[in-house]
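Dear Dr. K.,

Following up on our conversation at the group meeting, I've run the structure prediction for UspA domain-containing protein from Macrostomum lignano. I'm pasting the input sequence below exactly as I used it, so you can double-check it against your construct before we proceed with anything downstream. Let me know if the numbering doesn't match what you have in your notebook.
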Amino acid sequence: RMRVLFAIDSSEHAKRALTWFAKLYANRLSPGDTALLFLFVAEPPSFGPSLSTPELYAGAINDAVAEGRSLAVEIKTTCARLGLASLANRLEFLERLGHGAGPSIVQVAHEEAVELIVMGSRGSGLLRRTFLGSVSDYVLHHSHVPVIVVPPPAVQH
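The predicted structure tokens came back this morning:
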């Protein structure tokens, strides 16, 4: 039984990675032999003037949870359209609240005993990655399972 973890958010990069996986693996997977896990990591909001009361902070947390649930509905629809829903014995949606998506992805991959992590890349340049860090770069260097990073399409000059 294969367990695959997808790092998802509302970006086109995450959708591109799922589409790439479906095109490559949909015809190679045995029905019911694969679990697809989708992880949405939300950054906890920072206290400040706009979130100065517990009620406002709780509202920001609820917004993040609602975004994750909305994304789960969208991913289920996409999986059905791509032919993955009928192949997987399980589509599971996980939400984590944490500082830094990279460490959360690596931790969940370990906790859920996945065999593969699939994620999209924004295609940030080396300079940006050096100073700001990169989720995919973090996962590549800290994961103990194979990681597939699907790059953005090449820019035509």
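Two things stood out to me. The mean pLDDT is 82. The domain at 3-150 is CATH 3.40.50.620 (Rossmann fold).

Best regards,
J.T.
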